[in-house]
Amino acid sequence: MNNELSIITATYNRPEKFKTICLASILSQSQKNFEWVIVNDGADQETRKIIEEIKSPISINYIETPHQGLCKSRNLGLEYASRELVGFLDDDNQIYNNYVEQIIIHFQDNPHIFMAMPIQDRRRDVYREGKLVRKGKEFISPKPEASNEDFVRGRAIFDSNGFVHHQNERIRFNENLLILSDFEYLLQCFSEWGFDSFLLLKQHLVRYIQTSDGIIGQSKWQDWLKDTEYLWKNRSQYKIFSILDPSDWLPQSIAEIKRKIENNEKIPGFSE
């Protein structure tokens, strides 16, 4: 295996963030022998112009599509990705300049694994009318001591930014989900390759600043309930659940979310 990497970025009508955050971090990579698959969801013309002006030895595969949403756009990127390994980076996130280099080394040093992710430096900021009103506390995710069981059970926060896995035509983002689409994608990967197929790369290689304007920041507990109930209803589809029985935790999660809805609780980290 040559361990070459495709990074998929789906972007929707955010040319300034795409240019200053995502693009800048892509161009800063010390290892430039990778493919960048960009899906311009909605065919924003300013975004197209930014991409046309890129001058870099990085291989760029650019696709435009009518607006179709994040999951469909990522899945389209998976269809176009041509390298042995595929990973993800959203338009408002950044990878540190040694990300590609260290990810490749990680897979080369651990030929038994099929998927990996590094540690993210994270923050949750609150905006009002486009202006920052509260900067969140810095934290890291996942914790270096997180186990594979923690990821399957949802005890370790999983996010697809920086996540990398072997190409596989059967694994795609579930378009029925929004809040838990990344987590469900990870369950598919565990179900395909087994419990020991994932190995956390214990280096800080991704910078991820969530905002109150984003999908999670704008979500309600009703959105979380819908996705969690979907996983419970369809639990037989995930082979990994034959190893770790979800009846130990998913019903409890559903009950806890319902309690938060009844108490009219807000999503933590995004209130002023």
From TrEMBL:
Name of the protein in question: Glycosyltransferase family 2 protein
Q: What high-level taxonomic lineage is stated for the organism?
A: Bacteria, Bacillati, Cyanobacteriota, Cyanophyceae, Nostocales
Check the record and name the InterPro entries matching this protein. Answer: Glyco_trans_2-like, Nucleotide-diphossugar_trans
Identify the residues that the record assigns to the Glycosyltransferase 2-like domain, covering every copy. Answer: 6-132
Q: Which Pfam families match?
A: Glycos_transf_2
